[in-house]
Amino acid sequence: MKNSLGRWMTSVLAALACSAAAQAEPGSYGGTVSGLDLMDVDMMFIGAHPDDDGGVTATLARYVLDGGHKATVITLTGGEGGGNATGTETGRALGLIREEEERRSLSMVGVTSPHFLGLRDFYFTLSAEETEKMWGGQAFVCDVVRIVRVRRPEVIVTMWPGPGTHGQHQMATRAATLAYNYAGDAKYCPAQLKEGIVPFTPLKLYYYPGSAADATVKIPTDDISRTARIRYADLKSIAQFNYRSQGWDTTNTLPARAANPETFMLVGSRVPVSEQETSLLTGAVTAGTSPVGVRLEVRPDSYEIGLGRATPVQVTLTNGTKLPMAALRVNLDTPTGWRVTGSSPARMLAPGETYTAVFTVTAPADAKAENMRLTARYTATQADQQILGRNATFVRPLPAVVATFAPTFDVAGYQVFARETGTEWVTGSLATRLPLVVGQPTDITVNVTNRGTTAASGQLELKLPPGLTLVGSSQYQVAAGATAQVRVQLQASAAALPTGRQSALLPVSLSTGGFTDSANAFVLPSLTIPRLTTEPKIDGDLKDMAAGADGSMGPEDLWWRTKPDSAADASNAFKLGYDDQYLYVGMSVKDELVACNIAPNDVKAQLRSDAIGITVDPTGQSRDTSTTLQAAAFPCTTAGFQARGFRDADANQGVMEETAPGMQVASVKSEGGYNIEFRIPWAAMPTQPKAGDTIGLNLVMYDGDQADARVGANISQSGLAWSSFSWGGKQALPYLWPRVTLGK
Ligand SMILES: [Ca+2]
Ligand SMILES: [Ca+2]
Ligand SMILES: [Ca+2]
């Protein structure tokens, strides 16, 4: 307890230092004859790509265009990794176009001075770790912090940080969260102070919700903008029409097709907020029941708290107004059945003064291991008016013994970030990922933590869906105050796969006593492929691939967009083989309409039309796509039925002649589809496997069925994959690709 009080003192001092800094002269941008402060804004959106601001367009219109508030946007990259629906520009040239599209879109809702950091939008990634590496470490966070300190936004809105989304979105969100936490701390990015910058503390932080259930505030778009005299949804549609390179001009209509509210999740607030917010600005820029200037924060000693154990919770209130607050009372509300100690006598709080109350809360023995809300409230009088406010945080009560699946590296990396930034409650108990291979036992590590005072032992209770079985024991033993790593083996059989599918995502849970942890098992196909003794001729005739190993996929193996009507609409049977020099893939595709709308000089971005993709992780250990080769081909182009191969979405994109010397592709039209053959040189891959090795290898089929498709148009309707998981799984998470062993 002594230790923990010591820590409180440190954080109280830090909080005081922080508020003192915030009250210093906020820079001198206004100190001119005109008195104009061009830099100060009320709100800022931080995203990774031009058009990431698309979820806040109508809200910006409401506050800036109509409300007279000021806002700006930071976009970390030019979005040059995206497609180009308007021309042939790629790379930095496309980035310039996309930045201009964003300037035009934002200017229509009153935001005229966005910032572009110019970080590289490289190939598609789902990895925060890879993004950080490609962006040269975390230095860019200070670039974000600098702009926050110069522009001084009370409210920051950003994206979603969770693993499984675009890696650059994850990093934009992390940077925004760090800026919210630390831009007011002179010790953070300290070199900037030499530029004459004053630390600035933002007051509220919102994320785009990860799911509808995460949304805490909805801003309507079906009412009329008094400046534009049309609905916010319509104004949003017109503004976003500017994102032409992303094809938004083909989907955005006037009037808008829908007028859905824009939704946000409140992640951090240093000011009082109402239980059901209706504005992002209240408490920070505009007054609610509490005047602007009052800060109220509630911080538990830790997010995870022991059942039945008293945990300190600090409530800090700062009177940043110009008037004294009289008869001030502060209290802390907990869920029913919890014990709270600590009370605050009525007192006076002078302008500039900070009052800190420390409560202790104790969760009852039967409290659920879920986010539990702690609400701090204050009441006071100011100039004979009653003022009041509330703010809340969450804790998660845990029993003494807790067993959790060891997370994959990406989930673990996110958890470290969340712990460091005090945002663990945002994703709660994020389900970890367990890749399991059909027909093989897989070792799973379970962390068993004992917060109690006596040793604990028992059996881990695993709840497994049909087709998954526990091999051997699940016994654990863990000393008091220790964490033990327990190894269990899970085996997946073909019975785990839904009818017609080659892969599956299945929920799995793990219990010890009253505590349950959940994970998603990703059940992956596997295949041993033969070394071919006769080199197949790459001519589209599959007869010479007959010795290869067999596989297939059909409409149930959908991961992208609309399920095909039938096997005749989209399906295939494939053959895989290899020799010392090459990996061979032969595929017999069923597709009732083969579109040939890609020009021969525009061979890139496979998902736009009928195409086949082959993703290879030559070590089987890749954490991201930087160490993989992703081959692709269109079976035909506007020049006729002749396949054109390229690399797409890996670290060396472009036509195969330049990016994979020695690669060959060939196709022939068949009854109801086409046949296609690939020869991919091992030498073109980042590393070269040898006979007996197991690699990651996924096959993907895209289908679009538009007969009169415009040249180059994106007609994508369906995406099938051998290992098929919605969003990124097939493409950018190599640990979810099928396991292929090179037979000896
Ligand atoms: Ca052949
Ligand atoms: Ca089709
Ligand atoms: Ca088609």
From TrEMBL:
Residues covered by the Alpha-galactosidase NEW3 domain: 308-378
Pfam families: CBM9_1, NPCBM_assoc, PIG-L
Organism annotation: Deinococcus oregonensis
Keyword annotations from UniProtKB, A to Z: Signal
Signal peptide: 1-24
Keyword Signal listed: yes
Protein name: PIG-L family deacetylase
Residue ranges constituting the Carbohydrate-binding domain according to the UniProt record: 538-712
Ubl conjugation recorded as keyword: no
Domain of life, source organism: Bacteria
